[in-house]
Design goal:
By secondary structure, the protein is an alpha+beta fold. About 30% of the residues lie in helices and about 30% in strands. It is elongated.
Length: about 150
């Protein structure tokens, strides 16, 4: 006796695809895209704080061999910054670079240079402001004397 193979017919597949399409057209407009956009600014602020702390930590950890320190440099201003990179100020080597989400607006002082003691060098910026179209904004402040990094939601 031959066993019959079970399969779906073309009509059944078309009905399922149409049902999913109808559900998608009803549900998609109800999604709150603004809520998703709000969280992009928060994620960008957290990432930027982590990278600022990393830059400071690199300057302290390499103080014996690098007396100039490390800097986080904002790049691609148009009119808001869209990227940044971490640079070894002794060698000019770029350690890492990141691009900010296009939905996040970033205003910054430009460069944040950390010396071997972890403090900000003279001429460094002290503030970064990130905002999203959803209304959330964050201010990242660096205390020059200590290099402490603080992030507050506005």
């Amino acid at each position: 006796m031959k066993a019959h193979k079970r399969a779906y017919s073309l009509v059944e597949l078309i009905v399922v695809v149409l049902s999913i399409g109808i559900l998608a057209t009803v549900v998609a407009p109800r999604l709150n895209i603004a809520a998703i956009t709000k969280h992009k600014a928060e994620a960008a602020a957290r990432k930027l704080v982590i990278d600022l702390r990393r830059t400071r930590r690199l300057a302290i950890a390499n103080a014996a061999i690098n007396t100039r320190g490390f800097k986080l440099k904002m790049t691609k201003p148009s009119p808001y910054y869209t990227a940044y990179e971490i640079e070894n100020m002794n060698t000019g080597e770029t350690m890492d670079s990141h691009t900010l989400d296009s939905k996040v607006l970033c205003k910054a002082d430009g460069e944040f240079m950390f010396g071997p003691l972890g403090n900000l060098r003279s001429g460094s910026g002290t503030q970064i402001v990130l905002a999203s179209a959803g209304g959330k904004s964050f201010a990242i402040t660096i205390i020059p004397a200590t290099g402490m990094i603080k992030c507050t939601e506005n």
